[in-house]
Write a structure and sequence with these properties.
By secondary structure, this protein is α+β, with helices and mostly antiparallel strands. About 35% of the residues lie in helices and about 25% in strands.
C-alpha cells in the first residue's frame, strides 16, 4: 500500500526536475535576462517568476484543493489543509551572475509539520528528496547526516539574512574559527541544508530563513538522522531561525548559535 505522502513526493520530485530544466534555459542565456535588484542579496529575475508560475500551474493541476505559498507570487488558499511551499530559484544572486549554485525547492506542509521535501540542483543534476517517515535520498540512494562529534571534522554552513543583524554572524564565525572549525557559504541556504542531509556539511546555522528556503531541507536532515531546532507555529508567514546538524555535533552548533544570536 502506498503511503499518503509517497505519491506527493514522487510528483514533487519530478516537478522540481522539470522546473530545473526551465531554469537552466534561462541560466544558459543570462545576457538576455531581465533582472531587478534591491541589493546584492535581494534580487529577482524573470526566471524566478516564470519557474514559480510553472510549478504553481503543475501543482494546481494535480492537487487543485491544496494551498500554495511561494517566494515570488501571492499565496493561494486551499481547502485540503495541505500547503505546498516553493522557492523556484534559491540562490538567485548566484544564478544571475552565472555561478552554478542554485536550486529548485518544493516542500509539502500539513498540520504544522513538513511532509515532503525536494531540493533539485540543475547544474549538477542532483536531486535530494524525502518524505516524513520515509527517509532521505540523493538520486534514489539513501543519505545520512555526518557522524562527526567535533567541529574540527568538517565545515559548518552559515548564511546571513537582511532580516537580521548581519554583524551577529561575525561573532558566530569568530567563535567557530577559534574552536578550530571552518565555515562554508555558497549563497544558497536550501542547497547548504541539502548538503547537511547528505553529510557533506556538519550543520547549518542562520538567524532567519523564510519557509520556502528551509522547510524542505530541515525535513531531509531529520529523515537523514540529523537534529533540527523546532520551527515556530507561524513559520509559513514569519519564517524561522535555523539550527541543524548531525546529532554528534548538534549541541556544539546550537551553543555557537545561541551565543551569537541569543535565544
Amino acid at each position: 500500500m502506498e503511503h499518503d505522502n509517497e505519491a506527493r513526493m514522487r510528483f514533487a520530485t519530478d516537478l522540481a526536475k522539470r522546473a530545473g530544466e526551465l531554469g537552466m534555459q534561462y541560466f544558459r542565456r543570462l545576457d538576455t535576462l531581465t533582472i531587478e535588484s534591491k541589493g546584492h542579496q535581494d534580487m529577482v529575475s524573470e526566471a524566478d517568476r516564470d519557474v514559480e508560475t510553472f510549478i504553481r500551474e503543475a501543482l494546481t493541476g494535480e492537487y487543485p484543493d491544496d494551498a500554495i505559498v511561494g517566494e515570488e507570487h501571492a499565496p493561494r488558499p486551499g481547502m485540503s489543509g495541505y500547503s505546498w511551499v516553493i522557492d523556484p530559484i534559491d540562490g538567485t544572486a548566484n544564478f544571475v551572475r552565472g555561478i552554478p549554485a542554485w536550486c529548485v525547492v518544493i516542500a509539502g506542509f500539513k498540520d504544522g509539520v513538513t511532509d515532503v521535501g525536494v531540493i533539485h540542483e540543475p547544474s549538477t543534476g542532483e536531486t535530494f528528496h524525502g518524505r516524513r517517515g520515509g527517509g532521505a535520498f540523493l538520486d534514489g540512494h539513501p543519505i545520512r547526516t555526518t557522524g562527526a562529534t567535533s567541529l574540527t571534522e568538517g565545515s559548518l554552513g552559515t548564511g546571513f539574512s537582511n532580516r537580521a543583524e548581519a554583524r551577529n554572524v561575525v561573532g558566530l564565525i569568530d567563535s567557530l574559527l577559534s574552536q578550530g572549525g571552518v565555515y562554508y557559504r555558497n549563497a544558497s541556504g536550501a542547497l547548504m541544508l541539502a548538503y547537511v542531509a547528505a553529510g557533506r556539511l556538519l550543520g547549518y546555522v542562520e538567524q532567519h530563513m523564510n519557509a520556502w528556503d528551509c522547510l524542505a531541507g530541515m525535513l531531509l536532515i531529520e529523515e537523514a538522522g540529523g537534529k533540527v531546532a523546532p520551527h515556530p507555529a507561524d513559520v509559513l508567514t514569519k519564517g524561522t531561525p535555523v539550527i541543524v546538524a548531525g546529532k554528534g555535533v548538534y549541541d556544539k552548533v546550537e551553543a555557537l548559535a545561541t551565543a551569537a544570536f541569543g535565544r
